[in-house]
Amino acid sequence: MKRVVITGAGTINSLGHSVPETLDAMREGRCGIGQLDFRDVERLAIQIGGQVRGFEAEGRFNRQQISLYDRFTQFTLTAAEEAVRQAGLEFHGELAARSGVVLGTAGGGVSTWDDNYRSVYEDGKNRVHPFVVPKLMNNAAASHVSMQYNLKGPSFTVSTACASSNHAMGLAFQLVRSGAAPVMVTGGSESMLCFGGVKAWEGLRVMSKDACRPFSANRNGMVQGEGAGIFVFEEYEHARKRGAEILAEVVGSAMTSDASDIVMPSKQGAARAMAGALADAGINGDAVGYINAHGTGTAANDKTECAAVADVFGPHADELMISSTKSMHGHLIGGTGAVELLACIMALRDGVIAPTIGYEEPDPECALDVVPNEAREARVDVALSNAFAFGGLNAVLALRRI
Amino acid sequence: MSTRDKVIAIIAEQAVLDPSDVSEDSTLEELGIDSLGLVESIFAIEEEFDISIPFNANEPSQSDFDISNVAAIIAGIDKLIAAQS
């Protein structure tokens, strides 16, 4: 089996338009959540979110590209540009033929659906733009990345709600580790912050009207975010031979299904995913210094996740740090694991643990070291990134410092 | 603007050309308009003139709408507008 390393990272989210900007914000415990700004927002009960601001597609893409790129694709290409540039790879010949792209998204082109439903239902129009389908399809972003960088190997999109990115990155990891692909571009993207996208979430009544406060006793729900996180996963020897800078090693992944409830999380499913990732990596739980929690800020997730961590790690659960960066960038749904992987890389590489901000009151059911409100310096050798989706589909990645 | 000028403006925008560079005997291929650009042009023309163009992207040559050059497109649109009124 091959070793797999990360040689490029890119992002755009409410904390920043690049990895350095995002990590600075996480270090400073800055909050990217604020008043939403889009058409008909006044008709929503939930009016906050982690919206990407100051992003102008017009300056970045030409008219023809904009007519084909939904916002989730625009985010993906923006983050991919940063990641591939950092990796310093160009794809030709055999490398191009065998390298691919696997991305996660839950909703794909949600605002394209929204805009065009509005046009035919509300405005009564009988004709839509010819590119509606290629723009909204869930694989649009992966396909445009493949075209942009000449990636001709295994390429597809994974959709498992809030675990989409982690499932995608887990698969990319397996493709590189098995030798099927020397390089995989992976991660995920989401852009649901439009009237229909937020209205749908409102229906579930799990959204907070004021803030995302994971693990805090007074938490009152999740807050949506948007954006993308993209990584270059590369076979270790391939990266080493060309002298690439290595950000971290991906050492394990596991996927489990609760097979129990369409929305309620299961402690066993989450625990099996974390334990599975450790077993896959051949690492003892005691080696884990940091967990980037799924940490949505809902009553159900946070206490289930903390109980699962206690089950998997035993007494070591009280030694490790676990934080939820959703408190800062919001829940990017299908793109969330990708942006959160950046916090794991920062912990391993820079020795800085991103905090859980908005933490106000301890909850006895979440009695772990959640790195409240302020980032912390600590040496971490192994980090986990959790994602537990609606539908009971869980995916956990294990990363190691290199 | 006449039908001719409006159609040329739409095609020129699609081809990223100045309208003065689009002549009536230009073919879409010469102007660099590919299959996606063609369906987008048809959409823009339908929107502009509020007409429905009998164009099937599966078999453009079998459609009742002649797209062999700019003049044919203008003539087809004139016919559709006349049929509507």
TrEMBL record, chain A:
Alphabetical list of Gene3D superfamilies matching this protein: 3.40.47.10
CDD domains given in the database record: KAS_I_II
One protein family per Pfam: Ketoacyl-synt_C
Cellular location(s): Cell inner membrane
SUPFAM superfamilies linked to this entry: Thiolase-like
Domain named Ketosynthase family 3 (KS3): residues: 1-401
Keyword check for Transferase: yes
Name of the protein in its database record: Nodulation protein E
PANTHER family noted in UniProt: 3-OXOACYL-[ACYL-CARRIER-PROTEIN] SYNTHASE, POLYKETIDE SYNTHASE-RELATED
GO biological process: fatty acid biosynthetic process
NCBIfam families, per the entry: PRK07314.1 (NF005589)
InterPro entries per record: Beta-ketoacyl_synthase, Ketoacyl_synth_AS, Ketoacyl_synth_C, Ketoacyl_synth_N, PKS_Beta-ketoAc_synthase_dom, Thiolase-like
Function: Proposed to synthesize NOD factor fatty acyl chain. Involved in the synthesis of a highly unsaturated fatty acid moiety, which forms part of a lipo-oligosaccharide that is responsible for host specificity.
Domain of life of the organism encoding this protein: Bacteria
Automatic annotation (TrEMBL), chain B:
Keyword Lipid metabolism: yes
SUPFAM superfamilies documented for this protein: ACP-like
GO molecular function annotation: acyl binding; acyl carrier activity
Pathway named in the protein's UniProt entry: Glycolipid biosynthesis; KDO(2)-lipid A biosynthesis
Coiled coil: none
Entry keyword set: Fatty acid biosynthesis, Fatty acid metabolism, Lipid biosynthesis, Lipid metabolism, Phosphopantetheine, Phosphoprotein
Record domain Carrier: where: 1-81
PANTHER family: ACYL CARRIER PROTEIN, CARRIER DOMAIN-CONTAINING PROTEIN
Protein name listed in UniProt: Acyl carrier protein AcpXL
Organism: Pseudodonghicola xiamenensis
Lineage: Bacteria, Pseudomonadati, Pseudomonadota, Alphaproteobacteria, Rhodobacterales
Gene: acpP1
